[in-house]
Amino acid sequence: MADRHWLFGDQLGPHFLTPGPDGPAHDAPVVLIEARSVFRRRRFHRAKAHLILSAMRHRAAELGDRVHYVRTETYREGLREAVGAGRVTVHHPTSRAALGLVRSLERVRVLPARGFLFPQDTFRAWADGRGGHRLRQEDFYHWVRRELDLLMDGGEPAGGRWNHDHDNREPPPKGARTLDAPKPYQPREDEIDDEVRADLDRWEREEGITFVGRDGPRRFPATRREALAALRRFTGHRLAGFGPHEDAMLAADPVMSHSLLSSSLNLGLLDPAEVVTAAEDTWRAGDAPVSSAEGFIRQVAGWREYVWQLYWYFGEEYRNRNALGARTPLPEWFLELDADAVTARCLSTALAQVRDTGWTHHIPRLMLLGSHALQQGWEPRAVTDWFHRCFVDGYDWVMLPNVVGMSQYADGGRMTTKPYTSGGAYIHRMSDFCGGCAYKPGDRTGERACPYTTGYWAFVHRHRDLLAANNRTSRAVQGLDRLGDVEEVLRTARDRGDSPP
Fold first, then answer.
1. Beta strands in 73-124 (DSSP E)
2. One domain, residues 368 and 474
3. For residue 127, is it left (φ>0), alpha (ψ between -120 and 50) or beta?
4. Strand 30-35's sheet: what is its strand order?
5. Residues β-bridged to residue 431
6. Structure pTM?
7. Range of the domain at 414
């Protein structure tokens, strides 16, 4: 009998069972382990727990008699029950903790990772060739496009430019409440979802396992069939409108033209190669402009792949980086997703979206949630954990580089060239949040001072030496020096502290 093959809960697509020299045997029995200890260790979003368990149980139903599905307390216990003294293969897990576990187990053979575009050794050769220091995403993205002949016309990038950001940074249409884009794919729950919800209720009642957020109707695919339907819906109906407003925000339209495919990719239901190919095919068929196709492909083949590779390349020490010396604990209102306690309309809206769905698109994550944490000096490791727990697509490999490197600048610039934060003017330009808000984006002092405007100048003051030495941020320090009310701005920021803004 062939060695059994162990699937983690983010390895659920067919490509994780494709046989070959670097895969399981073609007839390998499959093991899936549902370990409650995962949910005891971290207080996950309830919708995230639901999605993961629903996806695992749906995959078990698809595999039928081929799978041994174990519900137990720990992975070690589950493996003993499913395999005993037998041998097991498993594809390289997506977290260091899980990799350490499988490597510590006897009779477990770790196969290469799947679900990404390049082997880690290939990226390491690219990174080492640059001295391991200047590893900018844009350089990596160009290399990926060339290596995969992706969105290329001969040796040149399609449309004549590598990056179409200039066309993809439009503010929302003036006066519009929504983009009026075609609706995204919406999965239908079934009896497996009912069972998951009942089990989660029981865990909360009887097991002492607690969650944050709300578990409404499932919004994200839990099966390969659903994920493919979501991909077809996006490329066929929504990709064309994605690019221009991908950085915009509308209070009544949190999804806009975004794909909602990140959770399907990160559960392994979709392979990134098929996703970017589908987007390129849509452009080549004339059904989407090159700017929209490029903007989306950059998110998958550029950013997602880049973050995965950096997670392993930088090593575990990266987790503890704190270049800005941020030490403030996360406040209770943020930990509890208490959007109703927040007055600032932009932050309240983003926090409510996380509370209700476990998702927002990349700009609220970076420029509202992450920017506020950066301005307040919240401890980056705690911010990373919060994003990991509270987002349906959040995993350790996803959030560690995204938060430590991009959002909180805790690596001191190893990943990005500057901290990403702004005052209220950016939010006012790129959203409709400021209308009807109790605060005014242009006010930095007084009762109506925008928390982001005050927070921005307090951040610049706190880190003026570092920012002055960076040619991308030195003008911010010059702007600070031109303010005539710096002390009042700092007093406003101190008085607010970590109370809900």
1. 88-91, 108-111
2. yes
3. alpha
4. 67-72, 30-35, 4-7, 88-91, 108-111
5. 249
6. 0.96
7. 320-496
